[in-house]
From TrEMBL:
Keywords for this protein: Hydrolase, Nuclease
UniProt keyword Nucleotide-binding, yes or no: no
Tagged with keyword Protease: no
Biological source species: Streptomyces silvensis
Signal peptide (UniProt feature, chain positions): none
GO MF entries: hydrolase activity; RNA binding; RNA endonuclease activity
Protein name: Ribonuclease N
Length: 148
């Protein structure tokens, strides 16, 4: 048996092809929040569902999932202090270049107490003038955007 094509698809086949292309586009762009490094952050009840523009392209963490000491530091930041460490609230220079480039003085850093550490430890929260908040637990080697 020989089939000859007229070069045109029936209307129903065209609609099916269009629907398949839409599905493929959705799958290729992703359905969830993608974290840097390819690991998806799973949403939990009460988690923020959308990532703000300033946090796109970097790892994120919902504020509720931060260590208890970091959540306490966030409360102190929101209240304006008092802070337990003299360096809390000082300018963060972003010398490592891990955060978006901004003018000097844009970022401020705050210590997150680490149980068992005799000094300030490695954990910090860094805030930006536009209410951005970032968390590091490895002394500025990497940051996660805090979703509040």
């Amino acid at each position: 048996m020989i089939f000859r094509s007229s070069g045109r698809l029936p209307v129903s086949s065209g609609r099916l092809l269009g629907a398949l292309l839409v599905c493929l586009a959705v799958l290729l762009t992703g359905c969830g929040t993608e974290r840097q490094g390819g690991t998806a952050e799973r949403a939990e009840p009460g988690d923020a569902v959308s990532t703000p523009a300033w946090a796109r392209g970097m790892d994120t963490v919902p504020a509720a999932r931060l260590p208890a000491e970091a959540r306490q530091t966030l409360r102190l930041i929101d209240r304006g202090g008092p802070f337990p460490y003299a360096k809390d609230g000082t300018v963060f220079g972003n010398f490592e270049g891990e955060l978006p480039r901004e003018a000097r003085g844009y970022y401020r850093e705050y210590t997150v107490r680490t149980p068992g550490e005799r000094d300030r430890g490695a954990r910090r929260l860094v805030t930006g003038r536009e209410d951005e908040t970032y968390y590091t637990d490895d002394h500025y080697a990497s940051f996660r955007a805090v979703l509040r």
